[in-house]
Amino acid sequence: MKIKRFEDLECWKEARILLNMIYILTKKGNFSKDYRLKDQIVGSGISIMNNVAEGFDSQSNNEFMRFLKIARRSISEVENCLYVAIDQIYISQEEFKNTFTQAEKERQLVDGMLRYLRKYKQTQRS
Asked: Does the pTM of the predicted model rise above 0.90?
């Protein structure tokens, strides 16, 4: 299947799931009142989706790779914020585990797309 739109990308679809999980967490209890942390983790989650979409529409594999690397860093930022949230007892161990697992799934998909683009780039040179 040829991917024609960013919405067709698995890494975008899973980033959307991750962002929705983040929104659910940040609307509850004390997490909703910690504006700095809430804004940081939501912003990072949005950044993942935005960078996948923007990179795809850049119409350049090099640019797409650059945006995917930014998305990857935003995944790390989400994970770091999850540690802060659990340390502050804003989320349960189960919420942490589920959301962190989704973030790791997203990282694997982004890494897979990066590998694909690198391989494609090498075959174009040959």
From this structure: yes
